[in-house]
Amino acid sequence: MPEWAILERSLIALMNTSEDLLLEHYLMPNGEIFWPDIEGFAGYGGVDNAFEGFHRWPLFYLLGGDDRFLELAQRQYDVLVAQFSRYKKSGSQLPAGRDTMLVQEYLPDFDWMHAGEAAMYFYYLNLANPTNEKNKERSIRFASFLTNEDPTIPAYNYDPEHKVFKTLAMGSNGPAYHRFGGPHSYGTWMDSYGLAFYDVPGVVTMMDLKDPEKARRFGEVYSARLRDCDTVTNMLSTSMVMNAYLHTGQEKYKQWVLDYVDGWRERYAANDGIMPDNAGPNGIVGETMDGKWYGGHYGWAFPHGFHFIGDAMVVGGENQRLLTGDPGRLQWVREQVEMLLTHSIEDEQGRRLVPQKYTDPGAVIEFGGSDTEPMTRPDRVTTFPNFTRKQQIDGWYEFQTLNPMHMTHVYADSLDPNDLELTKEIRDKTNNNWDHVDRSGVHGKDYSGRHHAYLNFLEGGYPNYPAEALLHSIAQVYGRLSNLRDELEVGEKGWGYRPGSDKAYEELAEVTRQVNAMKEKQWSESVTHSYFQTYMIGRSTITTEALIHLTMGGPMPIYNGGLLKVSIRHFDADRKRPGLPPDVSALVRGISEQGIELTLANLHPIESRTVIVQAGAFGEHRFSTASYTDDHGNATTTELNDEHVEFELGPGTVFEVTLGMERFCRQPSYQLPWDR
User: Fold this and answer.
1) What is the rounded CA–CA span in Å between residue 19 and residue 28?
2) What percent of the chain has pLDDT over 90?
């Protein structure tokens, strides 16, 4: 039996019980988040974070996790919806029924960078059990907030004529205009990101926003530019409408996704090879930004630059690819990477450093950094500790090695060797993450980052990747468990965004006292603050990247709202549920335009197992043939011409098959194999 097959089942078995510590000590018995009895308390992070941390449960079930993970995932989603639908938003001027943290079970006023993070949980839940009528109704209702079909919404969010949302944030309460018009005051979270605009007189760094008059002036500019302005990262919303389409197959959802993404394609085509990050009420780039293509919310200047622009371009492109089957829908992502590379520099270590952000050339850009940060200037304008002044080149700044995640998605879509070569070109030459897996290469909220190693495996250059990735995943689980035990026993946690005032610290002390009265293990103030900032993000022990790579043949979904984009998906034929059957391991050994090479193994010594393999996460591909060696040692090819193929695996069997595949030739759907 191959080592990878044993390790794959070991990882699944380990994670089937590893969340028990979290269930016992981080949630109320009914699944609710611990919550203090303090009027107006809203936590220290957005309500999106409360949902975000649970997305791994339905995803793990989809991969073959225990039945209870579907039950837990559904229970938890329903509980969180009910809990946060009760809590009032502090200082809300909205009428009763629209003044809660969730309205109509949905985020009332969020941008789609954050809404996309929360929505992953819901997408995976629908994929895991599309027969749940309550979730299907929610899917249609949530989409209606975006497509102007909800009759109860105070104002529509979308302008179909100009293919723009009316403002940067929206939801079940309509356009979130209430977020504008006031001062833009300093918060400790700003230290890491800088300012949204660098041309407001008297405001040099975010610390100037501690001055009420400067905060007022900055707020005026902020509101004038962003109140009536769509942002490119709102393309992440297309997955929510795709979710309704996957349930219903209705043309109106398909057309909405195509139209909205095409609006951004038109703006991109007219902007000299750079994706603009903003569009005004008439769909015009720079309409509210004094003609500038930069300055949009979660755009080129603030807070993360290309990262989330790239996410949105991948998600919009992948959703169009699913709907049309047309190749090249992700080409614009490659073009943006190539554009950024023209502005890159090479440091003394031979690393290719690529700018992540752009703002007004000659701006004074000074915020949090480190002594080892590249491309900084010595002529600081403040004395704030741990700040650095960023060096610009033609307006570009914040130079670093480029995350390969976006190009990994481009290559997974195109399978073009040129895209693979570009992905190799951007790797960090000082950090061997091409034929080696270690902690430094895996990071982020979804515990992922093995992109280069995975692509090297597919190309044949890293044959030990399956075993080493699985061993590393097992170590990740034990590491998370150790962190949880330390948090529970030692009681301390590193601070994220610290409270910003003495009053905030006093509230934190009271929150800690009340929460500790509800539970056995006592938390320090730092743990309490972390809990209400990130909830289960970083606490869940479930890690899925290696299992997606190996069993499904595809990259991790884009974290901020991407759908599952893989070669195949598995179903247990006997139990009629998604995921690998018990004792079965799977390895997608190779992927090409012609099909995939797949190995299936049944580790049970006595019993047979039957697995259904589906072409694509949503049946968007079709199997043409199955080529294998039969029981008599003869090479055999069987015609399939179906999106599913069923294999019966005898006890202790290792079965290798090459599946011919026509890619993106079918309309995607949540429909289960036994319901087609």
Assistant:
1) 14
2) 92
For residues 411 and 424, the answer to whether their CB atoms sit within 8 Å is no
Cis amide linkage into residue 303, ω under 30° from 0: yes
CA nearest to 240, candidates 75, 73, 121, 81:
121
Question: 394-413: string of b/e by CB count within 10 Å (b at 16+)?
Answer: ebbbbbbbbbbbbbbbbbbb
Cα–Cα distance, 353 to 45 (Å, whole number): 32
**Residue 663 vs residues 144, 286, 623: alpha-carbon distances, Å:** 30, 38, 9
Do both 114 and 146 map to the same domain? yes
CA distance 441 to 468: 13
**What tens digit of pLDDT does each residue of 404-436 get?**
999 999 999 999 999 999 999 999 988 889 999
Q: Cβ–Cβ contacts within 10 Å for residue 213, how many? A: 10
| Residue showing tokens 């293509």 | 293
User: What's the pLDDT tens digit per position in 584-607?
Assistant: 999 999 999 999 999 999 999 999
DSSP symbol at 656: E
CA distances from 310 to 169, 448, 520 (A): 19, 17, 44
Is 649 part of any domain?
Answer: yes
Whether residue 649 sits in one domain with residue 597: yes
Is residue 497 over pLDDT 80? no
Q: Give the pLDDT band of residue 445 (cuts 50, 70, 90).
A: confident
Q: Among candidates 455, 434, 657, which has minimal Cα distance to 556? A: 455
In this predicted model, what pLDDT tens digit does every residue of 613-670 receive, in sequence order? Answer: 999 999 999 999 999 998 888 999 999 999 999 999 999 999 999 999 999 999 999 9
* Structural domain range at position 218: 188-224+361-394
Q: Does residue 215 sit in the same domain as residue 233?
A: no
pLDDT in tens, 530-589: 999 999 999 999 999 999 999 999 999 999 999 999 999 999 999 999 999 999 999 999
Domain count within the chain: 3
Q: Is there a single domain that holds both residue 285 and residue 205?
A: no
Residue by residue, DSSP assigns 451-511 as: HHHHHHHHHTS-TTHHHHHHHHHHHHHHHHHHHHHHHHHT-----SS---SHHHHHHHHHH
d(CA 657, CA 65): 24
Q: Report CA 537 to chain centroid distance, whole Å.
A: 12
CB atoms within 10 A of CB 518: 10
